[in-house]
Amino acid sequence: MDKLIHPAADAQLIEGNKSLHQVTEDVFQPLERKASPSWWLAFGFASTALAIGLISVVYQIKVGIGTWGLDRTIGWAFDITNFVFWVGIGHAGTLISAVLLLLRQKWRTSINRSAEAMTIFAVICAGIFPLIHMGRPWLFYWVFPYPNTRGSLWVNWRSPLLWDVFAIGTYFTISLVFWYVGLLPDLATARDRARGIRKKIFGFFSLGWTGSARTWVRYEMACLLLAALATPLVVSVHSVVSTDFATANLPGWHTTVFPPYFVIGAIFSGFAMVLSLMLIARKVMGLQDYITMKHISAMCKVIVFTGTIVGSAYATELFMAWYSGNPFEQFAFNNRVFGPMGWSFGIMVLCNVIVPQLLWFKRIRSSIRSIFLITILVNVGMWFERFVIIVSSLHRDFLPSSWSSYRPTWIELGTLLGSFGLFFTLFLLFCRFLPMIAASEVKSVLPKSTACPEAESKKEAA
Amino acid sequence: MSQQRSNDSYRMENHLSRWLSLLAAAGGAVFVAGLFFSPHRVWGGYLISMQLVTSLALSGMVFLALLYLARAQWAAPLQGVPEAMARCLPLGFAMGILLLFGLSNLYEWAHPAAVEHDPLLQHKSSFLNATGFSVRLILAFLLWMILGNRLLRFSKERGSQSWPFEGRVLRSSAVFMLVFTVTYSVTSFDWLMSLEPHWFSTIFALYQLAGMGVAGLAVAILLALHLERAGPLKGVLRSEHLHDLGKLLFCMSLFWAYLWYCQYMLIWYVDIPEETAYFVKRQEGAWWLVVRCTLILKWLVPFIVLMPRWSCRKRSVLSRVSVVVLAGHLLDLYSQVGPSVSGGVAIGLWEVGPVVGALAAFAWLCLRHLGQVSHASLDDPRLAHSLHYHTP
Questions:
Q1: A315-324: which pairs have CB atoms within 8 A and are 24 or more residues apart?
Q2: Across the interface, which of A256, A309, A360 has its CB nearest the CB of B266?
Q3: Average of per-residue pLDDT across B373-380
């Protein structure tokens, strides 16, 4: 019978031969003791960045968005770049929790909780930029179609910007619900371990979880249904975001491959961000047994896979620009590569296409330091991808008399820094107050757990 | 020697073999007759069948490479199906070589007179010319067959105990996928997009890829069900496998529809004449109906029917949906090829003949190959998982 056991079947996802109790201790103890100095240090940096961002935002709302480096040719630059960048970052979490759940990838259990948290925080960061760009953010509710007293003033259903409102709103809602539902059993564990006011708070949010068989059955069905609902959203959000550009009659923006290409780029950048944060978090929070080299290697493979697709999309775009024979297309791409903004194209190709190819090699995939460096470069590259698409397509207008150049102001840089500050502040708070690892799900992939058929058949064989 | 189960091997029944070879011969005869009576239309049908057969064989290779790369265990007993499909690639190659003799009947850019008066075609002529087309076609097929054969070689070791997941298998699969992505993109521009030489769309290669996935999965499902009826997979093919295959078909069909919508919507929205010309042609007259039917058969039917859990697990439902989807795929190819070769909608002997013949030849070859590979070998270390796993 022994040969019926597949070599990978008993591969351990969690190291250290943990008992069920040990998992609970490892996950929940960090919430119950005082924060470490390294956490405070990180929190100090993050909240300082957030404060700088807040000051910049208040200043630009008070003075107006004339404080940005825009002009009549370049009407969109930093704000929309940051918006698309953050929406993209928000793609890994739901992919990991929903798509990998449907694909029965059990390694996701160690990382899904924090990846989903990052999704939610990234979408929050993204949402800020259109809000600021409105100039009068207190009128934000005008983007919703509701019967109003402003006469014929109605939202434009044909505008992709309105589609954005719905796509991102839906995505945020479903991601939040999915994340919260997934948290329930762990919130209940935190409740059972806590005393005093903490017990009350965790008790309120665990919605009276009892842990009975019936509760679990319903919980698992709910997760499955939410996963099926969330999966199309992983594709739809960035497809809609891409139509912000692709529906414009502008060379460099209007190209049919944009929706799938944006989605794959978003997954690419999202995984890179999740991986860079995980590499820090596992070290700082001492979770090396849970987020193992196996998890890291799997994420590296997703990055090299998506990065290669992104590279082939760049190549297709360049080829089509030539093939089309359209002088405007050809000029736009020629300018993108060799024009005054060509340096940003160079950074984009280097970071997104060339550098990730290193991950084909096992030696690189087992070196934490190189992986960290690569993921940071991918993040830089993906930010520049949006910058390249947006600014390099705009700055050479159809009329040479309107040609212009772009340089971000300190206010814009401060806002970008602030969005990172907000992201990290929220993430650090999450690490501090909520279980970072889905303990209940991790327990189901422990080799000791009988929920795993491979483990069962192994026992029989023994 | 790998241990074999008693009913492991498959043999094509004689009457089936007879019928298939008869149909293939009839298709060939129609094609030859068409060369004299209606060369444009019959070459159009021929291009569709060549693209179909090649895509089906390639989808088998891609399926195989992805199973290896993902270290998938669920499909272990079904692996013979994509392997048999992949082994039919030489048929596609032979048809591709023959296609080179019909270029002037299909492609506007193959007429020097047309190119002479068209600055756009002149611009493209360094890419769209008979020599380049032939070199790229032959090179692509050679690469697919060389790299694909390296993948297929592992099937002999599949039953052995030391079945390697790492190393050679993963490397060969990854290299195949990389080369395939680039070459398939280029051939899709060559074979199909250049039928409308003034038109271009960056999503086109991906769109063909999704179509290939839909058709390949549909055929794989039909073959797996046939193997179950005929013996080798009896008692091995579980509802879980069908459920997973059904979900994959559902997903690919949805992905295809998504790409169709992206392409159509963006071109409709921006409304540039050089881009809309493609769709305007396909909305005139009866083409309107063909495109609608494509969407219904290739997307709407599987989307609605395969949504519930039970229908994926029901053999009769799954096999019927697969047939419907295949029909949708054929219509999709026809709506891409037809408007530039025959003008109006004309589905007659010249279109149906080559397609039926090629499909029959493909089926005959594929079933032959199915008899030569082992199914559900007990020595396959992945079999245990495949026979036990659950799909929620």
A1: A316/A257, A316/B185, A316/B202, A316/B205, A317/A255, A317/A257, A317/B202, A320/A255, A320/B200, A320/B201, A320/B202, A323/B124, A323/B127, A323/B189, A323/B200, A324/B200
A2: A256
A3: 71
The 3-class SS string of A175-226 reads HHHHHHHHHHHHHHHHHHHCCHHHHHHHHHHCCCCCCCHHHHHHHHHHHHHH
* CA dihedral for A356, A358, A360, A365, sign (positive or negative): negative
B202 closest CB neighbour out of A248, A255, A453 = A255
pLDDT in tens, A251-272: 989 999 999 999 999 999 999 9
Q: Which CATH superfamily is domain A70-144+153-406 in?
A: Formate dehydrogenase/DMSO reductase domain (1.20.1630.10)
Do the chains contact at A4 and B384, CB–CB below 8 Å? yes
Residue A16 has pLDDT above 50, yes or no: yes
The pLDDT assigned to A9 comes to 44
Confidence of residue B171 (pLDDT cuts 50, 70, 90): confident
Confidence (pTM): 0.92
Q: Do A326 and B274 touch (CB under 8 A)?
A: yes
Contact residues, chain A, for B165 at CB < 8 Å: 7-8
**pLDDT grade for A10, boundaries at 50, 70 and 90:** very low
Nearest residue in chain A measured CA to CA from B382: A6
Q: Are A80 and A408 in contact (CB under 8 A)?
A: no
ipTM of the shown complex: 0.90
By three-state DSSP, how is residue B235 classified?
coil
pLDDT at residue A123 above 60? Answer: yes
Q: At residue B247, does pLDDT exceed 50?
A: yes
The answer to whether B241 and B375 have CB atoms below 8 angstroms apart is no
CB contact under 8 A, B262 and A316: no
**For residue B141, what are its two tokens?**
């097929």
Closest-approach residue (CA) in chain A for B178: A308
Domain boundaries defined on chain A: 70-144+153-406
**Cα separation, B133 vs B191, whole angstroms:** 9
Domain residue spans in chain B? 14-375
